[in-house]
Automatic annotation (TrEMBL):
This is Uncharacterized protein. PANTHER family: INTEGRAL MEMBRANE PROTEIN-RELATED, MEMBRANE PROTEIN. GO terms for molecular function: ABC-type transporter activity. Pfam families: ABC2_membrane_2. Keywords: Membrane, Transmembrane, Transmembrane helix. The chain crosses the membrane at residues 20-37, 203-223, 253-277, 297-322, 329-346, 390-408. Coiled coil: none annotated.
Length: 417
């Protein structure tokens, strides 16, 4: 880092808005972890509900006992255990509302809870394509459960063949996703993976806050010089129209990079500190059963964070362009906040798949990188089918590379009043 870049980087860090933004980001991260931990509830073998760390500890221990390949034998065994416990009259107690009998808390904690991660996967696969049937496993046979992977493929095929008001999948789309699913290695690797699931679920909100803090911190980069009158000094100096502007751009990139990755590292470390690292090499499908991507949870996390980082770089570049164009940092913050927030209130179209695809390329939707790995969405580009996550990442890179030179040129050609 050269002297000019270090100077501009330190200017960013010394701003009150930057310090306030970093403080808010840390509070938000801590709150996310707190809610993730205290939102866990588990039932022990006595029928008592355990919350927070106690619930996580028992849940991790019991679920991890099932770790390994999620093969037909294990799936059938889990189903048989569930049905045996559920149908045993000794495990039934009168319903609180007086309508029949229900499973007691003690029986649920002793026989059902430990297998619930797998029974929930069975329910998801065997439920109707257009809904979720909690009781579907009550009447299934072990032989039917053993067909788990075949039923999953059939359900994906049904989804691809459904009629959608916003446009159906093309034959090429269907063939692409069926082939992608057929290439998945089965049986899936299963383990307790709640920590990774919580991290992935929190990435979108964390990315939104990070993007806003980045915008808040970089808004004065050029606009602040206009406001203070320093633009005349900068642009009339020997390197004001070249090296100093480049130093500002490099400082913006360094701040965005450091801030984003450190924040995500804090979220990851704190979350896994409570939940454990179990499940890092499990298939993505154990938390998103219909996903067509053959990634582990660790790979999904890294790719999702990378997409979020690229989206934040694009927001950074947009902020710098606006800062070079506008006279007030406040105006820059208002516009970038609108760019981030407004798309969140635009509903998906019920008529146009193309519109929905375009909306996915807006910054706030880009930050939902994990979601793009759980759906069957593909873009037709230059005669090729390109999965949505890769289009999102590529779009962010292209716009960042296009916008940074605009910011450079706009400030360097600024006419001093």
């Amino acid at each position: 880092m050269n002297l000019l870049t270090r100077f501009e980087f330190q200017k960013i860090l010394r701003r009150k808005t930057t310090l306030a933004g970093i403080g808010c980001m840390l509070l938000f991260t801590l709150l996310s972890v707190y809610l993730s931990v205290h939102g866990v509830q588990w039932t022990d073998e006595k029928g008592d509900d355990l919350n927070g760390k106690a619930g996580i500890s028992l849940k991790r221990q019991q679920t991890h006992e099932l770790a390994g390949n999620l093969d037909p034998v294990k799936i059938s065994m889990v189903l048989e255990r569930y049905q045996k416990a559920d149908n045993d009259p000794d495990n039934q107690v009168p319903s609180p509302d007086g309508n029949g009998m229900v499973l007691s808390n003690e029986a649920y904690g002793k026989f059902i809870a430990r297998d619930s991660a797998i029974t929930n996967l069975i329910r998801s696969v065997f439920s109707p394509v257009d809904g979720y049937d909690y009781y579907v496993i009550d009447s299934m046979t072990a032989e039917e459960a053993a067909g788990f992977y075949e039923v999953r493929r059939d359900k994906i095929k049904q989804r691809l063949n459904m009629d959608y008001t916003y446009g159906n999948y093309t034959e090429a789309d269907k063939a692409y996703f069926l082939e992608k699913n057929d290439k998945l290695a089965v049986p899936f690797k299963f383990d307790y993976a709640e920590g990774w699931e919580k991290v992935l679920q929190n990435l979108s909100a964390l990315g939104m806050v990070a993007a806003f803090v980045i915008s808040l911190s970089l808004a004065p980069m050029f606009a602040g010089e206009y406001q203070s009158g320093a633009d005349s000094l900068i642009l009339s100096s020997r390197y004001g129209q070249t090296k100093l502007i480049m130093a500002k751009l490099r400082a913006g990139i360094l701040f965005t990079t450091g801030f984003f990755w450190i924040t995500n590292l804090i979220l990851l470390v704190l979350t896994l500190l409570f939940f454990g690292i179990n499940g890092w090499n499990s298939n993505l499908q154990i938390i998103a059963i219909m996903s067509p991507y053959g990634f582990t949870l660790l790979q999904t996390y890294l790719l999702s964070v990378l997409i979020g980082y690229l989206a934040c770089l694009m927001i950074m570049a947009l902020t710098l362009v606006l800062s070079a164009v506008m006279r007030s940092p406040f105006q820059v913050i208002i516009v970038t906040a609108a760019v981030l927030i407004v798309p969140m209130f635009i509903p998906d179209s019920k008529r146009s798949r193309l519109f929905n695809h375009m909306m996915s390329l807006l910054p706030s939707n880009m930050l939902e990188g994990y979601t793009s790995f759980t759906t069957n969405e593909v873009y037709h580009m230059f005669g090729q089918l390109v999965p949505q996550p890769y289009v999102i990442a590529g779009t962010a890179v292209v716009f960042t590379l296009l916008l940074l030179p605009v910011a450079y040129r706009r400030f360097s050609t600024h006419q001093v009043a």
